[in-house]
């Protein structure tokens, strides 16, 4: 979340009319890194959330909105986008970019120090519900971060002047990607793919909303679970109690099958690799102060931790 595309009150009012909203106020939300996000206040005092999609094309934003409607209708705790009143559609446009409006979701995010086994149990169950609800999504897009896409990012990094530290990190990522070049997504379905702590809202120990399905795609379900594990269950190392609680919560709703279990190690490595590479390309080379900074070193440390366990060690560690 960020504020990259300006939105004046007059512009917000024009957009609001398409959704049947009378807008009284607009405030940019200065957090995150990809999209422009605003808190909108209506004349009646209600709040809604407006997102300007900075990277998605119009068709992609429309697909995401339909996916969110599908998931919300099946009980996933995610805000369903508002429909326009002037068209049978969820998406408008602002300055040539797609725009969606969502009900305001109340709740708080958890810092790492507040993540407990109770929380990861709840979270694991919600991940499983997304996977079950998404099983019949008609048009789940392919991942934008598959092996080929990550290889292209690595090649682009090798054409740039970077520090020795980054060059070594890129070489490390390239070796790991080569080792995972065989990767397929045979046990695939709709996944969130980016369920970090800032994308989950809580109230009194209960999840109130899962946010930001922009990266949702057709991918390995085990990959999604491993992304979540690495995002929530790691400080200086993988926390076994948090990770096991996450897996237990997931399996209370959807049992891991043999294909899922066979994928855990490589999917955990691929998850750590994906965020190592994208944090180098999207954050490390960006001038400081232009947005939220996310350190690639944190995900290389996760990659180290997973590889130190090995396939059987990870399965034992997770008791999966």
Quick description:
With 320 residues, this protein is of the alpha+beta class. The chain has helices at residues 9-18, 58-73, 117-133, 147-157, 164-179, 221-232, 240-253, 258-284, 296-318; strands at residues 23-28, 36-42, 47-52, 92-94, 97-103, 188-191, 200-203, 206-210, 217-220.
Notes on the structure:
The chain has 320 residues and is of the alpha+beta class. The chain has 2 domains: 9-103, Phosphorylase Kinase, domain 1, CATH 3.30.200; 112-318, Aminoglycoside phosphotransferase (APH), C-terminal lobe (Aminoglycoside 3'-phosphotransferase, Chain: A, domain 2, Alpha-Beta Complex). Helices cover 46% and strands 14% of the residues. It has 9 helices and 9 strands. The protein has helices at residues 9-18, 58-73, 117-133, 147-157, 164-179, 221-232, 240-253, 258-284, 296-318, and strands at residues 23-28, 36-42, 47-52, 92-94, 97-103, 188-191, 200-203, 206-210, 217-220. It has a 5-stranded antiparallel β-sheet with strand order 1-2-3-5-4, with helices on both faces. Strands 6-9 form a two-stranded antiparallel ribbon. A two-stranded antiparallel sheet has the order 7-8. β1 (23-28) and β2 (36-42) form a beta hairpin.
